[in-house]
Amino acid sequence: MLHEGHTGIVRMKSFTRSYVWWPGIDAELEQCVKSCVSCQIQRKSPPVVPLHPWAWPERAWSRVHIDYAGPFEGKSFLVMIDAYSKWMEVHITNPTTTAATIELMRKSFATLGLPDVVVSDNAANFTSLEFSTFLKRNGIRHVRTPPYHPSSNGIAERAVQTLKDGLRKIKGGSLETRLSRFLFKYRITPHSVTGISPGEIIFGRRLHSHLDHLRPNMEKKANLNNDRQKQWYDVHAKQRLFKIGDLVYIRNYATGPQWLPGKIIELNGNVLFTVLLEDGRRVRKHTDQIIQRYERSNTQESNDDFSEDPIVVSTPNPSPTVNASQSPPIQLPLTTEPDHSSPIQSPSLSSRSSTPNRSSSTPEPVTTSLTNRPVRRSTRSRHSPKRYGSPVRY
């Protein structure tokens, strides 16, 4: 009844306190809102978790990130970039089938060798049985990023954008010529992360200069760059930790509810989890696509029946209050005739004449004798106020 409008925790507390109150009201209202199924499946995406950079590879061409770019001028491009040296391989292709992808990768492997790990998204040409068999036969481990989470393969996504920008800026010549010019300039230019050109890292050859003895530590520069990127990224991030067995909701990108209930059954990394859905499906999700699921407790379910009447909070009529620090009221008995034998004692005189043993906070009551005087009453004509159509008498 109190959560029919599905308001948030703060508004629900304010609304409830204006009518009822009971012990532990805040905790029960928070649990009621958190465990509401409708509120959980209709909420927006949670804040992103802190950035988890990829580990720095041990050598060049050890971990390769791949992705498709395009169509651009009617062509598609298979982009491959080395995580260590930032060396980029680009192949123009029209069909993007699995067979075409494998043939283009063979050309790069024939020149640079076989990598240890290949990272890709979940496109059909990267998830087919033929592609998986090709990688297994060559001893390459395949890592796939979560669906609809391109930032997990950010190196490849950045390479695709760099390629498109370069091809647009280069004028003159065919598409193949512009691609060759772009790759040549890219491979001989020092990278912002490593501080060295990709070609120098891959082949170990560069033009000799007096600055060769000042060759920087690439790993230190990369870690420093990752730390700066992480510090900037984590400003608006919020840490969320999950473990195996947690009840969660996962983001649904297909038709149906926006969030689907499930249970974490496997940890695939720092931010990747395998979730078992209620229909038996197993999906891999990033922490950004997972939120905590809260279940109603037995205490909450019993309180929802409203078996006991709540305490109604009402505002009583204003009544005069007596301050505990004030003295007791002065007793003034009235007499018809003045008593000349007893002088009138004022409160100040009474307080001065009190004995030292008696506390000053509780003075003795003062009695005075007054003559019977006629009460003076006002002759002003008074009328009761009329408010909202009816007189209110005070």
From TrEMBL:
Taxonomic lineage: Eukaryota, Metazoa, Porifera, Demospongiae, Heteroscleromorpha
Gene for this chain: 100632687
Organism listed in the record: Amphimedon queenslandica (Sponge)
Biased composition (Polar residues): 314-329
Protein name: Integrase catalytic domain-containing protein
Gene3D superfamilies on file: 1.10.340.70, Ribonuclease H-like superfamily/Ribonuclease H
Membrane spanning residue stretches: none
Annotated ranges, domain Integrase catalytic: 49-206
Sequence ranges of Basic residues compositional bias: 374-386
Domain of life: Eukaryota
